[in-house]
Amino acid sequence: MAIPAEIAAIGSRAEAMLAELGAISSEPQRLVRLYLSSEHRCAADLIAFWMREAGMTVTEDALGTVRGHWRPDRETRLLIGSHIDTVIDAGKYDGPLGVVAGILAVRELAARNADLPFGIDVLAFGDEEGSRFRTTLAGSSACAGVFDRASLAFPDRNGVTLADAIKAYGKSVDDIAAAAYDPAAVVGYVEVHIEQGPVLEAEGLPLGVVTGIVGQSRMRVIVLGEAGHAGTVPMRMRQDALAGAAELMLLIEQTAVENQDDGMVATVGRIEASPGATNVIPGRVGFSLEFRSSSDARRKAAIEQIKADAQRIGVKRRLEFAFEPFHETSTTACTPLLQNLMAEAIAALGLEATRLPSGAGHDAQVMASLCPMAMLFVRCRGGVSHNPAELASETDMGLSVAALVRFIEILAARDAGQRGRT
Ligand code: GLV
Ligand code: MN
Ligand code: MN
Q1: How many domains in the chain?
Q2: Does any ligand 1 atom lie closer than 6 A to the CB of residue 361?
Q3: Using CA atoms, how far apart are residues 97 and 15, in angstroms rounded to an integer?
Q4: Which of 91, 149, 173, 257 makes a 20 to 30 Å CA pair with 380?
Q5: pTM of this prediction?
Q6: Are residues 336 and 346 both part of a single domain?
Q7: Same domain, 201 and 227
Q8: 204-256, pLDDT tens digit by residue?
């Protein structure tokens, strides 16, 4: 398919913006941009600059979400957003593409002097990855009015709590409630995101309509044994917390493999063994555990199974296991009507509109508790993400902005038509 020059130009513009954002990192050799850090501030200022350049006024809420308002006088708003924080050693597309696509779509609509029945707010959230605090989706939760204030006490690795970090960023926790949108004033939420998986590439398609987002359970597992001399305590007399944790980890992997027909995955991504010396039997281990699956019931059952396994290993090895949950999101369906409108927008570009679920979490998941929600996936090379090798092509990004603009126009025509009938 020949790509029109305007779409190619928008794709190049998106790539240039993402490269500029991707250079804002706390480390010179890899991309690390944590929530409420000085790099977050710097990225937020750049986003605000681009929003103004595209014709938006800009505000920032108590959790640092940058909000670009186009046609602020309109009573109802379509929200377009994604996140600008990153994982450790990130690629530059996961999150920022959705913000940049929103800004470029507004720029396009402004250039066409589009007359829509609603205004648009482009939202750049600061905490989707949960890389700094155990909390995740803080900014979008505040916008959706479901922010959990208990997370304000969560510390980062240096003991700085989320509440302290909000204050140091120049914001006040007293203003969090005011960040919530009135559901009556919101038409919907739409997010453009790289797929982060291999399906679109395998199907040879640049864009896809997301059907839903898998649920997640995250927790910390603590294993208590007894530290001792690595040379003198015989194997049969040990209470080795790390060996017990390792046995449980293999059962975690096996449980997810046995449930993979519903897309279940389980990951232990971080582990600390104490005291952490070559010649000391580990007395205490803490590790992160995350389960995802498209069935909330099966995910919960798998976690209960793991707890029972831990109990059994504990008796056998004389260890204690404790599970401390800190994040739970249910499986969330994208709004069927908006899925159809997104498919229509993709088809209007002459492309096949395939549908696929998301195994990754997204701000869209909590925004769905506020309003109708849709997501547009963009093909990424090799399905690679959470990795500096992450790549979306300029052409595919240009097409995603064109599809987003078309989606907005279709939604606007529908909205105007409905008003005409009432
Ligand atoms: C976010 O990227 C997640 O799914 O962990
Ligand atoms: Mn993301
Ligand atoms: Mn991510």
Answers
A1: 2
A2: yes
A3: 9
A4: 257
A5: 0.90
A6: yes
A7: no
A8: 999 999 999 999 999 999 999 999 999 999 999 999 999 999 999 999 999 99
